[in-house]
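Structure ticket #2291
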Amino acid sequence: MSKEQRAQVDAMLRQPRPDSPRSVEAMRAGFKAMMAQMAVPGGLRTTRTTLGDRPALSVESLESVNSVEAVEAVEAVNSVEPGSGTHPGTILYFHGGGWVFGSPETALSLTGNLVARTGFRAYSLDYRLAPEHPFPAAIEDALSAYRALLDRGESPSAIAFAGDSAGGGLSVTACLAARDAGLPMPAAIVAFSPGLDATRTGESMDSKAGVDPFFTRESLGHTGAMYLAGADPHQPMLSPAVLADLTGFPPMLLQAGTNEVLLDDSTRLAARARAAGVDVILDITADVPHVFQSFAGVLDEADQALDRAALFLTQHLHAPDTAAGSAR
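Resolution: structure written out below.
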């Protein structure tokens, strides 16, 4: 751990911002420029594709791709059923950006690091954004993407939902939507600094004011109002940390930093998960900001947290058995 590294990141995030709320276009451009500074691992292959009705970015490790292709070549020669010698895993990733900005490209440092550390493939979904497409458009897109993975024959035991910030919240609400639709649960959820409470009633909203170098109650209210578009925040799909029934949920890993106003979104969801009998790991890192994992290669704590997330994923994602593979 390095106090100097944490101070450097904190100073970067505290750069002066306009006093008045910025336009949607300015927010999107500013976020894109900031995230373009984040390090993306080498040895990745990215491909534009679609899931459901939305664009998505496929992110794969070249080493893993080459290994799978080699196994498939041997299977073809030996008349072995394709895929029987591989250990697949798929991460359905939801980017951050307050429901208003962000894209699969702005989250590439996060998806790329998870892929590089696990060897799994990730699909980063380009879900619809507010204010053009407010609640529940993003949840509908996430559910459609998950259906598309299942319809193409992927096993839920080999799929994880993951995301950061608003996308971390989406990883939870998409799971709620999947359960309500009667779909099988994914194998795991990983959420980095998730936004899970549109009522903004967590104590950290006030106790971390000023400590958080990125968010204020006012800034969250500005983008939150675009996503809500008049909807009542007192409902599970908008405030799962305080209202959702998590019965039947898969194991969850929630990572957050102590220097963020959204900290209690994670702590309260973890408490609800435990009360519902769900396996949950609440992973809190001291003196780091919102989605600190983005600073991999700059902040030691970011790399360590990503290592823990990768371990969690490899422990919970499993290839379907031979019988299931034959059925496909």
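Closing remark: The CA atoms of residues 62 and 150 lie 24 Å apart.
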